[in-house]
C-alpha cells in the first residue's frame, strides 16, 4: 500500500517536472518556476487545462486588441437599461462585507509553488458579495435574456473529469492531458451539458454553473450590475474575520465529524466515496455558511477572481490590491468537489490556482460582488 503510494507520487513528480519544463520552453514562466516542485504541486491538474494552441479556432472577438468581455458587458448593460423592469433577474442574495485589514496568504504554505506566501497585511474596502456560487438557474436567466453564448459553446468542447463521464462519451475521446490524465476534453460539454451531450442540468438548476470561462463569468456579473471579486476581496471574505485559520470555519477540516464543504473523500482520482453526500457538485448552500454568511467558499466549484496570476507578492501593506496589470492566467480560489488533501490541498482560504482565461472545466464556476446591494 505504502509502496504503491510512493510509486504513484514519484510518477506524478516526474510527469510534473517534465510538463513544467516543456511549458517553460515556450512561455515566460521561468520566473515562476520553483526549484523543488513538490508532489502536491500536481494538484488536481486543473491548471494544465490549457486549450492547445494549434487546436484553437479563431473565434470572433476573442483575439486582438478588443476585450470581448468588456465590449459584451457594455452592450448588455445598454440592453438591460432599455429593458428595465421587463426581465426579472434571478440574482443571488448578497451580504455586506465590511471593509477592514487582514492577513492575506500564509507563511506556512500548503503548496509553496502556488505563491500562497508570504503572509501580508492587506486592507479592502466594504463591498457586497453573493452568498452563493452562481447557479445554473441564474446563468440560464442571464442567457435567456441576453442571448449570451459561452466560450465552451463556441469552442465546441470543455474539460470534464473522466470519473463522471458515461462510457459512451469516454469511448469517443482520444486526446488527454499528459500531466493529469483524468481530465478529458469532451466535445459538446458546456454549461448546459456538464458531462457532454448525453447530460443535462434539468435536475441541477440549483448547482453551481460550470464550464464558464473567465470572460463568461465577467459577462454574467456585468449583466447583474456586479463584477468578479479581486483575489484579496475573495480571501478576506473567505476568512470571515478569523485570523490565521486554514478554512472559512477554523482549522479542523471536519469539526465534530461534520463536513463543512463539498470535497473529495477517498482515493483520488480513482474512488470518491462521497462521504460528504456528493461525488459531483452539490446544490449551492448545502453546507454551513461561514461567519460572514457566505456558502461554499471552499469546495463545490472553484471560483474565478478578477486578478491576473503571479506568485510574487510584496510584503508592503496594500490597499485594495488588484493583482498584476497583465498576465497569461487568472487566479481562481477555493478548490472544488474534486479536491483531496493528497493531490489538491487547495480548499483553504490562502490556497490559489490559475487557469488561462479561456479555460473551462467541470469544476470551475464563480460568484460576483458589487459596491452596492443589487
Ligand atoms: C436529462 O437527464 C436526465 C438524467 O439525469 C434524463 O432522465 C432526462 O431525460 C434528460 N432530459 C433531457 C431533456 O434530455
Ligand atoms: Ca464530495
Ligand atoms: Ca466554491
UniProtKB/TrEMBL annotation:
<protein>
    <recommendedName>
        <fullName>Formylglycine-generating enzyme</fullName>
        <ecNumber>1.8.3.7</ecNumber>
    </recommendedName>
</protein>
<feature type="signal peptide">
    <location>
        <begin position="1"/>
        <end position="24"/>
    </location>
</feature>
<keyword id="KW-0732">Signal</keyword>
<feature type="compositionally biased region" description="Basic and acidic residues">
    <location>
        <begin position="72"/>
        <end position="84"/>
    </location>
</feature>
<comment type="pathway">
    <text>Protein modification; sulfatase oxidation.</text>
</comment>
<dbReference type="InterPro" id="IPR005532">
    <property type="entry name" value="SUMF_dom"/>
</dbReference>
<keyword id="KW-0256">Endoplasmic reticulum</keyword>
<dbReference type="GO" id="GO:0042802">
    <property type="term" value="F:identical protein binding"/>
</dbReference>
<dbReference type="InterPro" id="IPR051043">
    <property type="entry name" value="Sulfatase_Mod_Factor_Kinase"/>
</dbReference>
<comment type="subunit">
    <text>Monomer, homodimer and heterodimer with SUMF2.</text>
</comment>
<keyword id="KW-0106">Calcium</keyword>
<keyword id="KW-0560">Oxidoreductase</keyword>
<dbReference type="GO" id="GO:0043687">
    <property type="term" value="P:post-translational protein modification"/>
</dbReference>
<keyword id="KW-0186">Copper</keyword>
<keyword id="KW-0479">Metal-binding</keyword>
<comment type="similarity">
    <text>Belongs to the sulfatase-modifying factor family.</text>
</comment>
<dbReference type="InterPro" id="IPR016187">
    <property type="entry name" value="CTDL_fold"/>
</dbReference>
<dbReference type="GO" id="GO:0120147">
    <property type="term" value="F:formylglycine-generating oxidase activity"/>
</dbReference>
<dbReference type="GO" id="GO:0005788">
    <property type="term" value="C:endoplasmic reticulum lumen"/>
</dbReference>
<dbReference type="InterPro" id="IPR042095">
    <property type="entry name" value="SUMF_sf"/>
</dbReference>
<feature type="region of interest" description="Disordered">
    <location>
        <begin position="58"/>
        <end position="84"/>
    </location>
</feature>
<dbReference type="GO" id="GO:0046872">
    <property type="term" value="F:metal ion binding"/>
</dbReference>
<keyword id="KW-1015">Disulfide bond</keyword>
<dbReference type="Pfam" id="PF03781">
    <property type="entry name" value="FGE-sulfatase"/>
</dbReference>
<feature type="domain" description="Sulfatase-modifying factor enzyme-like">
    <location>
        <begin position="93"/>
        <end position="369"/>
    </location>
</feature>
<comment type="function">
    <text>Oxidase that catalyzes the conversion of cysteine to 3-oxoalanine on target proteins, using molecular oxygen and an unidentified reducing agent. 3-oxoalanine modification, which is also named formylglycine (fGly), occurs in the maturation of arylsulfatases and some alkaline phosphatases that use the hydrated form of 3-oxoalanine as a catalytic nucleophile. Known substrates include GALNS, ARSA, STS and ARSE.</text>
</comment>
<keyword id="KW-0325">Glycoprotein</keyword>
Amino acid at each position: 500500500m505504502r509502496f504503491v503510494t510512493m510509486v504513484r507520487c514519484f510518477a506524478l513528480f516526474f510527469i510534473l517536472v517534465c510538463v513544467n519544463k516543456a511549458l517553460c520552453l515556450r512561455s515566460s514562466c521561468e520566473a515562476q518556476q520553483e526549484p523543488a516542485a513538490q508532489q502536491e504541486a500536481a494538484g488536481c491538474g486543473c491548471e494544465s487545462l490549457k486549450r492547445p494552441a494549434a487546436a484553437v479556432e479563431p473565434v470572433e472577438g476573442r483575439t486582438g486588441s478588443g476585450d470581448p468581455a468588456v465590449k459584451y458587458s457594455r452592450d448588455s448593460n445598454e440592453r438591460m437599461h432599455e429593458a428595465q423592469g421587463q426581465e426579472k433577474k434571478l440574482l443571488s442574495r448578497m451580504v455586506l462585507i465590511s471593509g477592514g485589514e487582514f492577513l492575506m496568504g500564509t507563511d506556512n504554505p500548503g503548496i509553496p509553488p502556488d505563491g500562497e506566501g508570504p503572509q501580508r497585511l492587506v486592507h479592502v474596502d466594504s463591498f457586497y458579495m453573493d452568498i452563493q456560487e452562481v447557479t445554473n438557474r441564474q446563468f440560464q436567466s442571464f442567457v435567456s435574456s441576453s442571448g449570451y453564448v459561452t466560450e465552451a459553446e463556441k469552442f465546441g468542447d470543455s474539460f470534464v473529469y473522466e470519473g463522471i463521464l458515461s462510457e459512451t462519451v469516454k469511448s469517443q475521446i482520444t486526446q488527454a492531458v499528459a500531466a493529469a490524465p483524468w481530465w478529458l476534453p469532451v466535445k459538446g460539454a458546456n454549461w448546459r451539458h456538464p458531462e457532454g451531450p448525453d447530460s443535462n442540468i434539468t435536475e441541477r438548476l440549483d448547482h453551481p454553473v460550470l464550464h464558464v470561462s473567465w470572460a463568461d463569468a465577467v459577462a454574467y456579473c456585468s449583466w447583474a450590475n456586479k463584477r468578479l471579486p479581486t483575489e484579496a476581496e475573495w480571501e478576506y471574505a473567505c476568512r470571515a474575520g478569523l485570523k490565521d485559520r486554514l478554512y472559512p470555519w477554523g482549522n479542523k477540516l471536519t469539526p465534530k465529524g461534520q463536513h463543512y464543504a463539498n470535497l473529495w473523500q477517498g482515493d483520488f482520482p480513482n474512488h470518491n466515496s462521497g462521504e460528504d453526500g456528493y461525488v459531483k457538485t452539490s446544490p449551492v448552500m448545502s453546507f454551513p455558511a461561514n461567519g460572514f454568511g457566505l456558502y461554499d467558499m471552499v469546495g463545490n466549484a472553484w471560483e474565478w477572481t478578477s486578478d491576473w496570476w503571479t506568485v510574487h507578492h510584496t510584503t508592503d501593506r496594500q490597499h485594495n490590491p488588484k493583482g498584476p496589470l497583465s498576465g497569461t492566467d487568472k487566479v481562481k480560489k477555493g478548490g472544488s468537489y474534486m479536491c483531496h488533501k493528497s493531490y489538491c490541498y487547495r480548499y483553504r482560504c490562502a490556497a490559489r490556482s490559475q487557469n488561462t482565461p479561456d479555460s473551462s472545466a467541470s469544476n470551475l464556476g464563480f460568484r460576483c460582488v458589487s459596491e452596492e446591494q443589487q
